[in-house]
């Protein structure tokens, strides 16, 4: 019986450790303005000192289309309220290309984020 208790305890502790190291457990949502023509392939957050940092990858899944877009990151506090945001950052992404971006919050009370993506209507 003792080995079973030991295994359950190990699994429970392992689960807590995994949850604690997986980055922010908040919403981490993306929001599109205009038609969704660029894909947000992945995004994740992690702490760098006392500040939240976000890494994201955008992709144009079309073979030959060129897409212009802008994005910004809204920084949220523990209540989910926007307390800061980045400037709108423009870029052009050609067919099948991926763009990797990294941004860091300027405030230590930021606990979550939302990526806002705007593409022009064609």
Characterization of this structure:
By secondary structure, this protein is of the alpha+beta class. The protein contains 1 helix and 8 strands. Strands 1, 4, 5, 6 and 8 form a 5-stranded mixed sheet that branches. It is elongated, with a radius of gyration of 19 Å. It starts with a helix and ends with a strand. Mean pLDDT is 77; it is low at 1-26.
Summarize the helices and strands and which ones pair or pack.
Elements: H1 2-20, E1 29-33, E2 39-48, E3 51-59, E4 67-76, E5 82-85, E6 89-93, E7 98-104, E8 112-118
Query: What characterizes the major β-sheet?
Result: 5 strands, mixed
Distance between the ends: 67 Å
Radius of gyration: 19 Å
Task: Look at the structure and give the mean pLDDT.
Answer: 77
Low-confidence stretches: 1-26
**Binned strand content:** over 45%
Helix content: 10-25%
Anisotropy-based shape:
elongated
Order of helix and strand elements from N to C terminus: HEEEEEEEE
The strand count comes to 8
Q: Based on helices, strands and strand pairing, what is the structural class?
A: alpha+beta
Number of helices: 1
Question: What key attributes describe this structure?
Answer:
alpha+beta, 122 residues, three-stranded antiparallel sheet, single chain, disordered N terminus, 1 helix
Structure summary:
This protein has 122 residues and is α+β, with helices and mostly antiparallel strands.
């Amino acid at each position: 019986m003792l080995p079973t208790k030991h295994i359950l305890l190990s699994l429970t502790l392992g689960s807590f450790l995994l949850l604690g190291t997986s980055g922010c457990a908040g919403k981490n949502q993306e929001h599109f303005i205009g038609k969704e023509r660029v894909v947000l392939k992945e995004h994740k957050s992690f702490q760098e000192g006392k500040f939240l940092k976000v890494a994201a990858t955008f992709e144009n899944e079309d073979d030959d289309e060129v897409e212009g877009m802008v994005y910004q990151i809204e920084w949220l506090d523990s209540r989910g309220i926007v307390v800061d945001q980045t400037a709108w950052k423009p870029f052009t992404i050609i067919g099948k290309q991926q763009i990797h971006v990294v941004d860091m919050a300027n405030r230590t009370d930021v606990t979550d984020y939302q990526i806002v993506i705007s593409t022009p209507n064609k």
